[in-house]
Amino acid sequence: MSDTIAEVRRVHQVFENPEPSTPCLPGLNPFVKNKLELAACFLRALSKEFLAMAGGSVVALRTSLELEELSEVLDATASGDLVQVLWEKADQRVVNDGTLLAYGLAPAFPEAFRRIIESQFSKLDEHGKPIKVNGRFIKGPNYRKPDLSDLIPK
């Protein structure tokens, strides 16, 4: 298991996000399924538009790939096919990491990720507990937005 999964698991545990003991799609119902299908359709169309304008633009090409992969994740989720969801999430990770490489951001990513996880924990109250208002977690008084500016050369 990657270090990023272990770190995100720590965040999930503190913020009371359950981790099922077996693979499942909690909360997938007909309304959610319909919205997933609609979002996937929109993202596919947008992906095609970016691809059409890509030409020599790496940004347009990577954006097209990112949108296409997200649409495939949403389709797989809407269909309830966990094997396909796993496949698409892994494929999405390949594309995401490829974008980091294509933009020259890969060397900065581990430190950026570490700082973002640290920022997540800064949302907690003085007792190390998440603050929930109206069913939603909010940023605590010690919240610090991660500063990543020093990771990119000027």
Biggest sheet, in brief?
A: 2 strands, antiparallel
Instruction: List the total number of helices.
Output: 5
Cα-based radius of gyration, to the nearest Å = 18 Å
Strand arrangement within the widest β-sheet reads 1-2
Primary descriptors:
single chain; 154 residues; mainly alpha
What's this entry about, in short?
By secondary structure, the chain is mainly α. Helix content is 59%, strand content 4%.
Q: What can you tell me about this protein's structure?
A:
The chain is mainly α and about 150 residues long. Helices cover about 60% and strands about 5% of the residues. The chain has 5 helices and 2 strands, in the order H-H-H-H-H-E-E. It has helices at about 5-15, 30-50, 60-80, 80-100, 110-120; strands spanning about 130-135, 135-140. Strands 1-2 form a two-stranded antiparallel sheet. Strand 1 and strand 2 (about 135-140) form a beta hairpin. The longest helix has 23 residues, at about 30-50. It starts with a helix and ends in a 16-residue tail after the last strand. The model has no long low-confidence stretch (mean pLDDT about 95).
